[in-house]
Each structure stands twice: as structure tokens, then as C-alpha cells.
Please model this.
Amino acid sequence: MKIIVTERIADEGIAHLKSCGFVVDVALGLQHEDLLKIIENYDAIIVRSVTKVNRELIERGKNLKVVGRAGNGIDNIDVDECTRKGIIVVNTPESNTMAAAELAVGLAFAIFRNIPQVYMASKRKDFRRSRFIGNELDGKTVGIIGLGRIGSIVATKLKGCRMRVIAYDPYITDERFRKFGVEKCETLEELLTQADLITIHTPKTPETYNMIGEREIRMCKKGVRIVNAARGGLVNEKALYDALKDGHVAAAAIDVLEPEPSYDKAPEEQDYHNPLLELDNAVITPHLGASTMEANHNVGVAIAALVASALKGEIVAAVNMPPMATKDLTELKPYLDLAELLGKIYYQAEKETVEKIEVVYSGDLVRKDTKVISLSVLKGFLDPIIKEKVNYVNAELMLKNMGVEFTESKSTQLDKYTNLLTVKFHTKERQLSVAGTVFAREEIRIVDFFGYKLDFEPTPYILAIQNIDKPGMIGQIGTILGANNINIAAMQWSRNRKGEKAVAFVSVDVPVNGHVIEKLRQIDGVLKVSLLKF
Ligand code: NAD
Ligand code: MLT
Model:
């Protein structure tokens, strides 16, 4: 499989991908038009914040399975479109938070003490220090917008500078404010009117775009300082320019411009213009938040591992999947396998259209995070019938598009197993269910096959043979399989009532062709033969 890397990541990451057997093409600074021409040759793309993984690119990327965002923000990726196409989007949100937080704090010092301006003046042998009287952070109020991963680190560091820390973040609990010793602002206005320093740490969303505009800036105290090391456009650049010019904002430090310049061109090749660059009290850095040796290493290694796992079909914590820690995913692995297998049974054995799927969790499973297990059921259910790629990312959407209802419930009642996963398939006429359990943390068993009780260890090929419960059936089945050189690995019989119907679960070593299945069907008393492939 082939991976294209369009922005710089650590060499260790590239080496890891190669060691997994992937072909890796590093194509830095590629124009969007050129990328469009070649993207169909790749199974995965790794980007940072500049490459736009938009609808057009996704459309052309016919073979794309994974988009790796080396870093945090995913505003350059059309995640919804990826989800529709079943493309897994992975990022590394934890890997560069310290780097970004430290830059934000560094920029705060820079604009309180005029460090960049003094540095430039000193280079010119202008040592007239009286021109560079700054202010102290100590005792001032910092207003943090967005108290997430980075905002909270900034809060801790600035508390260390003895600043009063207030924050506005309507999406987090009061407990989180308490945890970081931060005063909560109920409204943005409350923050704007009190802060001497404003630092913004929200993602870029339609709600946060331009959230600090002309009106908001004018609400701030005169002489306020502003740091934006989150995303370009969160602070309106025109409004900021005007306020820096007339002194309402004393200084600003902006790591993220809108639009962003090219970070690979030499100065003489740059055709980038931005009025903020003309102002001495605007300190501009080139999206440098994540640029530390440590973060580069962390991000490169982490994204390579995620992309490699996702390409190998392993389940990974993805942006377009329910949130889940990697440790939890490892623990859930046997349940995910069981769920997929139960989902796969239906259309391999039945034909009636399913109108609703009900997943019931019992026993220990009640306490687990079951969303991803349900997705695994849906993935298995769709797998035999949908030709397009179906995975954890798009299974629920695909099911919805087919008009199939899906519900999940939990039951504490359990008589035989410590955990039980039941999948009920509702058709117009009836309800059919299959169930399974996990023993000793990893041993999967199918325990209910459409009402027949079993205790069967699933194997890649199983013949499920429904028949009249009468003597001689095993012998005839065995004879036909033997005559066709098909070895039986395991076999189990289940009947609902003596003399009525039974089902034989026959695990075979090789796939059984249609001709042999037909012969089995012709045995007197055989009602139905299904080959279940897992
Ligand atoms: P995060 O998701 O951990 O935290 C974001 C916080 O913003 C959340 O707590 C959320 O509730 C809050 N929020 C969302 N909408 C809000 C709104 N309208 N008003 C107030 N708060 C709101 O994200 P993070 O990892 O802390 O990253 C923060 C920003 O930093 C992102 O934009 C990310 O892309 C950017 N970033 C930049 C660099 C860089 O190089 N400059 C590096 C890493 C991250
Ligand atoms: C991020 O979102 O991780 C940062 O903006 C860093 C980057 O993209 O390089």
C-alpha cells in the first residue's frame, strides 16, 4: 500500500511506515492541483495544517482509506466527507499541546516586554532602552478562551506567573474550572471586559471563526494584549489591525494568520501580503506552536503508528469514531470481534430484509463503553451486502441511509454467562436473534443461532445446516463432505425439541463450493444450508 506525506514529519515516523512494508512518498510543498492529479495512487495521506483535504481531493482519492493529520486541528480536513466515504481520519491531539502552550506563554512575555522589538533594535545598535518600557504579567488578569488541552496548560503556567486567571468555555464542567483554579466567565463579554491579556485556545469552527471581531475588541480594556496561537481567523485580522493602529490593543502576537503563507518558500519567492506585518506592535510567528524537537518527534511517531494500524485494518482511536482511549480499545478487542461476527451471520444465513437491529448488552458488558461494539455489529452486518467499503467510521451512516433502524439497550439480567451480546434482527414478519459471549477475556463463543442454543467456537468457515431432528443426518453430511475432501474440524448439534428441527454447526477447514452445498441441501430432511464465513 502507498502513503503520500505532503508536509514534514519526523524521520522516525517515515522509517516506521517503511518498516511496516508501506511505500512512502514524501512530496513537500506540492500544489493542490498537482496533488489532485496523483492522489488516486495512494491508500493514505499524511498532512499537517496546510494541505487541504477537501471534498475535491477526497473525490479524486478513489483508493484513500486513511487521512493522517500530524498534529491537532482538523479544520483543513473535510471530516464529514471522509466519514461518508469510509475514510478513517486520525490525528495526534496530545502530542504537541505542551509545545503550543509554551509558545502562547512565550508570546505573552514577548508582547508584555517588547522582546522582539528590542531584539531588532539592539541588532541595529539602538540601545535606547527607555523606548521599550514594558509591563509585568504579575498581578494582571489573563482571559483564556477555550480551557481544553492547551488552554488548561496555559492557565497553569500563567498562574505560576501570579496572574489572575479567568476563562470562558461554555462546553466544559465547573469541575474543570475548579481543577485548574480558574475563575469561570459565564459570557465572553465578562472575560473581554476584565482581561489585560487575552489568549485564545478554541478549535476553528463556524462558531469560533471571527469570535474576536470589531465589537469584541472595542469591549476590551484599552491597552489589552492579545495572543492567538490557535487558528487563523479566530481573531478578525482587519479589526485587530485597526485596534493595534489606534492603540486600543497595545500589542498582539499571532502565530496563525489567515490565509497562512507558504512555509517552504524563500523570502525572495514570497508573494504573501498581510497588513499586520507592517505593524511594530504585531508580533507574527509562522505557525510555530508545534515546532519543537519534542513535539515533532511525538507527532511524527504517533501519526505513523496510527496510520499504519488503520491501514492494517486494526481499530484505532479515530476522529470520526466514538472517542475511545487506545487502552480501552485493546481491552474491547474480543468483544469487537464477537460483535462483527454476530453481525455477519444474518445476511449469510437469511434473506428477509431487516428493518431494525437491536443490540442488547448483558452482564459485565453493561459497564463497558458499548458504542464502538455496536458499530462493530453494524460493520459486520453490512459487510456481506455492501460492496463499497464499510468500516467503523461509516457503518452507522450507511445503515441509516438504508433506512434500517438501530437501537442499543442494556440489561442486568443474566443467568448463564458473565457477559452476553445479543443481536436481534427485526424483519416485517419476525425477529431473529444471535448471541455470543467472551470467556476468559478472549475466547469467543456463539451461544445462540436464531433460537438454537450452542457453545461454538467460531472458525473461518462454518456450515450451518438446519434439518429435521431424525437419525442418520450426521452420517450423510459427513459422507458428502468427506467425498469432497472437506475436513471437519468441529461439529455441534442443537435442537429445539426432540423430533422437530435441529441445526448442525460444522466447522470445516476450507471454503465449501456451491456444488457441495447443493448436495447437502438434497439430503432428505435438510431444510437449509448456509456457509458462514468469518
Ligand atoms: P481542545 O479541543 O482540547 O480544547 C478546545 C477548547 O475550546 C474546548 O475545551 C472547548 O470546549 C472550547 N471551545 C470550543 N468552542 C468554544 C467557544 N465557542 N467558546 C469558548 N470555548 C470553546 O483543543 P486544544 O488541543 O487545546 O487546541 C486548541 C487550539 O490550538 C486548536 O485550534 C488547535 O488547532 C490549536 N493548535 C495550534 C497549534 C499551533 O501550532 N499554533 C498547535 C496545536 C494546537
Ligand atoms: C496543530 O494543530 O497540531 C498545529 O497547528 C500544528 C501543526 O499543524 O503543525
The pocket of nicotinamide-adenine-dinucleotide (ligand 1) is lined by residues 72-73, 93, 96-97, 100, 145-151, 168-172, 201-204, 207-208, 229-231, 255-256, 287, 289-290 (CB under 6 Å). The chain has three domains: 2-94+294-311, 97-284, 329-533. The mean pLDDT is 94.
